[in-house]
Design brief:
CATH topology: Rossmann fold
Structural class: alpha/beta
Number of domains: 1
Strand order of the largest sheet: 2-1-3-4-5
Order of helices and strands: HEHHEHEHHEHHHHEH
Largest sheet: 5 strands, parallel
CATH architecture: 3-Layer(aba) Sandwich
CATH class: Alpha Beta
Number of strands: 5
Shape: globular
Helix content: 40-55%
CATH superfamily: SGNH hydrolase
Amino acid sequence: MRLLALACLVLSSVASAKSYVAIGDSITSGVNSGSPMYKHSWATGWGLERPFFKTLGADEHYNIAVPAATTDLLRFQGAFAAHVLPTYVSILAGTNDVCWTKPDDILQNVERVVRSLAPYTAVEKIFVGSLPDLRQLHELNDGSATCQLPKIACHRYWMTSDEGRRKIDQDILAVNRNLAKLQVEYSKVVFVNLAALTYKQEDISQTDCFHPSAKGQQRIADMFAGAFHQE
């Protein structure tokens, strides 16, 4: 009887274990947030007080975000997530599409991952983050002689005219509206509107004036946590 009880306890523990996979680009991997090895990633960073995996209560977590990735690469990250079958998945990508190519395929690529993971019963929630408000980043750093790296990190936005930036702003709004609709179309999707964040200078990396700093990473984690608690 004792062996049977012990076996039931072990099986119960395994059944209740939760895992989390973070999919995305350099924002999720924590590039230039002030520490190496993804320490300050909003998703899994131990260097943050409240990384998202702690909010989820995840026993295991995997950060497979790839710096400089466009959403074309999400299908490979999604394949890993399908293999692991985590309890929770987050998808935060598309900025590189806007900065270097075009945002036309962002929705299609994100939805492909959602569609591939949603049927699995093991997957409880898929958190989809919006594109950030690039206008705020540009205005914070406009005219700064020390902040030249955004011209490389986001050439298409920083090196165009004001009219060109306004057009890209409208493209970002359209993409975010469509990403928000995924929450209606897929019951497991939770949309997180990061464009609603109001940035301060301290939220931006002092290294490249573009990526989130440790404080910025924490604010993103808090946005995802807020969406989780509202469920």
